[in-house]
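Known limitations

Structure tokens in this collection are predictions and should be treated as such. Users comparing against experimental data should check residue numbering before alignment. To illustrate the layout, the record for Glycosyltransferase is reproduced below. The input appears on top and the generated tokens appear beneath it.
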Amino acid sequence: MRLSVLIPTYNPDCGRLTQTLAGLKKQTLDTCNWELILIDNNSSNNFQARLDLAWHPSAKIVTENKQGLTYARLRGFNESTGDIIVMVDDDNILNNDYLEQVVSIFNQSPDLGAIGGKSLPWFETEPPAWLHEFHVNLALRDLGDNPILSVWDQKYPDAAPIGAGMGIRREALESYTEKIASGKSKISDRTSISLSSGGDNEIVLEILKLGWQVGYCPQLQLQHIIPAQRMEVAYLARLVRQTNKSWVQLLQSHGINPWRRISHLGVLPRKIKAWFIYKAWQSQPSYIKWQAACGLYEGLAGLPSD
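Generated tokens:
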């Protein structure tokens, strides 16, 4: 199986991106068996001039002018030629055997459409003691050392792959790429001005609904670089609020939303009540959790009327 590695990026930190590329350069899978595609999502910081991709015989940079992670990924899917696609963020450092493991897993499991593994933190500065409560929001994950397989059963699986390091069988992507290209998706994802998310989850749901399995495979491990800015309370509060709002929209669009719509008039009273329930004034984690609740209420108020 030939493999394609996609790195979507927008105004990347060149130091972190260089670490990501260094991790790829050390892969045990020979470069003749995989291609490297970096998708520049209309950056303005001229980072391309500082990159060295000469070490890879099948590396290229393409530009996607339409802003947003979803469009950058779609461009990468369309540009790639591999039977397997691995999505790598510009702050991920894959273990040396990551690509080789991906190929092996897909070869051994023909029913798997998408896989992921452990996303372990590489903190650039000392994290606050409470940060572990929000690891999932920072795309950090360790579900143990046993594999977990999931099939479609009218809900989103807890062990579904996350975007960082997700391996995808190309033929399992057909429904998703058609949906995005046709404009039928209502899910917003990261842009230069928004922390909304849902693109990873929509990929997983479309793959599951086609009848494929998805899996958590602990032998797949990467390090996710977490800079100081992403550990700040203001950033985390904004992240969880926008993530929860888009999460409601995602579940609704796939008919698996477990909550009822609320009126816009009911949002403020709920936020005030949640302020006291979470004791948002008491600690930084409490405040962040209150912001998460606010995002949920905003998402429920934005649902269409019956």
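For this record: The mean pLDDT is 93. The chain has two domains: 3-226, 235-301. Please report discrepancies through the issue tracker.
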